[in-house]
UniProtKB/TrEMBL annotation:
The keyword Cytoplasm does not apply. It comes from the Bacteria. InterPro entries: 4Fe4S_Fe-S-bd, 4Fe4S_Fe_S_CS, DUF362, PSI_iron-sulfur_center. GO terms for molecular function: 4 iron, 4 sulfur cluster binding; metal ion binding. It comes from Alkaliphilus peptidifermentans DSM 18978. Pfam families: DUF362, Fer4_10. The keyword Iron-sulfur applies. Ferredoxins are iron-sulfur proteins that transfer electrons in a wide variety of metabolic reactions. This is Ferredoxin. Keywords: 4Fe-4S, Iron, Iron-sulfur, Metal-binding. SUPFAM superfamilies: 4Fe-4S ferredoxins.
C-alpha cells in the first residue's frame, strides 16, 4: 500500500499553509526517522520560469516556506534550488532573477535558508536507466543528503500532467534539457527518461502544491484552477497517480506514470493508496480541462502573431532549432518539429497556440 497524505487548504495565507503542510507531513512520520539532524536537504521547487506566484506556474513561496520551516525544526540545513527552463540558462544571473520573481528570495529572507547559486554540473552514472546510463545533472543534487520534490499540479501539453516526477527534470541543467529532448524524441522515450531521473534522484519526500493549479494547455499557458489541496507522499509515482485521479485524469494515460507501471516500480492501482486525513471520497473536484494535445493525440504549435512580440524565446528554447525569426516574426519548420512544445511552455506572452494537423485551431 502507498500512503498519500492530503490536507485541504483554501488559499495561500501563510499561517493556513504552514498548518496544512505540517499536518500533511506529520501524517507521514516515517520521514523524520529517515532524516538526521543537520542533514543537507534540497527542496527542488518548480521554478521553470521567472513568473510571479499568482500565475500558478511555479510552486508557491508560502508552500516552500512551510516546507523549509518544517525541516528547520528538525535541525536540517535547507537549500532551495532548481535549474530553470532552457532559454534562461543555468547561471547565477538567471537564478537571481528567478528566485526574486517567484518569491524564493522572500522565503530565504524569512527563514534564513539558503538559495542555491552553485551552477556547477556533474556527470553521473545511472546503470539502471532505460535511456541514458550517463547523464549530467546540477551538482547541488549530489551535494545534498536528501532531495524533496516540491511540485505544482498542472496539466502539460507534451506529458499531459506535471507533478512530483516531471518536476525532477529540472535537475538537468539549463540548455542541456534541449539536448535531452532531442535524444528522446517520442513521448514514450522521454517518459522513460523522466522515470530514470526520478529513480536516480530518489526523493525522500514529494509534495504537491495543489491549492491553485493549472488546467488546459499547461504547464504555463493554461488556465488557473482552484483545488485547495496540499498533498505529500514518500512515493512520487503514487502521489502523481493520486493527484491525477483527483483532477479527473486517467493516471495510466499519463505517460510517466504508465512508464513506471510498465517497469513494475509501482502498481498503478488507485485502490492501493491509503490517505490518512482527507479521503479520496471526501474530495469533490470536477474534472480538469485536459491539454488540447490530448484531445487529438498530438497537435502542432502555431503562433498567435497578434500577441507575439518576436522576443526570440521560442527560438532559444527549440531543441531541434527549427524556428526561424529572420523575417521579423517566428516561423516553424513543421516538417522537422519534434512536438516537444517547449516553445509553447516557455513563451512569456502565451503567443504559441496548439492546433491540429488540418490547421483547425483548438482552444483559443
Amino acid at each position: 500500500m502507498y500512503k498519500v497524505s492530503i490536507v485541504k487548504c483554501n488559499d495561500y495565507q501563510y499561517k493556513k499553509v504552514e498548518e496544512a503542510v505540517f499536518q500533511c507531513l506529520n501524517s507521514i512520520p516515517e520521514i523524520k526517522s529517515k532524516i538526521w539532524p543537520h542533514a543537507k536537504v534540497l527542496i527542488k521547487a518548480n521554478l521553470a520560469r521567472a513568473d510571479k506566484p499568482e500565475e500558478a506556474i511555479t510552486t508557491h513561496p508560502s508552500v516552500i516556506q512551510a516546507i523549509v520551516r518544517y525541516f528547520q525544526i528538525i535541525q536540517c540545513r535547507v537549500v532551495i534550488g532548481d535549474s530553470p527552463g532552457a532559454p534562461l540558462g543555468y547561471t547565477k544571473k538567471t537564478l537571481e532573477r528567478v528566485y526574486k520573481e517567484t518569491g524564493m528570495m522572500d522565503v530565504a529572507n524569512n527563514t534564513g535558508c539558503e538559495l542555491n547559486y552553485d551552477t556547477s554540473v556533474i556527470e553521473v552514472i545511472n546503470q539502471e536507466a532505460v535511456c541514458l546510463k550517463k547523464m549530467t545533472i546540477i551538482k547541488i543534487v549530489e551535494d545534498a543528503d536528501f532531495v524533496i520534490s516540491a511540485a505544482k499540479l498542472k496539466t502539460h501539453t507534451m506529458m499531459m500532467y506535471t507533478g512530483a516526477v516531471k518536476n525532477l527534470f529540472g535537475v538537468i541543467p539549463g540548455r542541456l534539457k534541449m539536448n535531452y529532448h532531442l535524444m528522446m524524441l517520442s513521448v514514450e522515450r522521454f517518459s522513460e527518461h523522466l522515470v530514470d531521473i526520478c529513480q536516480y534522484v530518489k526523493p525522500v519526500l514529494s509534495i504537491i502544491d495543489a491549492i491553485e493549479c493549472m488546467e488546459g494547455n499547461g504547464p504555463s499557458a493554461g488556465d488557473k484552477r482552484h483545488a485547495g489541496l496540499i498533498m505529500a507522499s514518500e512515493n512520487p509515482y503514487a502521489l502523481d497517480m493520486t493527484a491525477t485521479h483527483i483532477v479527473g485524469i486517467n493516471p495510466l494515460e499519463v505517460p510517466a506514470i504508465a512508464a513506471a507501471v510498465k517497469r513494475n516500480i509501482f502498481s498503478g492501482n488507485i485502490k492501493n493508496v491509503v490517505t490518512p486525513g482527507v479521503g479520496l471520497k471526501d474530495i469533490k473536484i470536477s474534472p480538469f480541462q485536459q491539454p488540447d494535445t490530448s484531445k487529438i493525440g498530438g497537435g502542432i504549435p502555431s503562433f498567435k502573431y497578434e500577441v507575439c512580440t518576436s522576443c526570440g524565446v521560442c527560438v532559444e528554447s527549440c531543441p531541434p532549432r527549427v524556428i526561424d525569426i529572420s523575417s521579423g516574426r517566428p516561423v516553424i519548420n513543421l516538417d522537422e518539429c519534434i512536438k516537444c512544445f517547449c516553445c509553447h511552455e516557455l513563451c512569456p506572452n502565451k503567443a504559441v497556440d496548439i492546433k491540429n494537423e488540418n490547421n483547425i485551431y483548438l482552444g483559443f
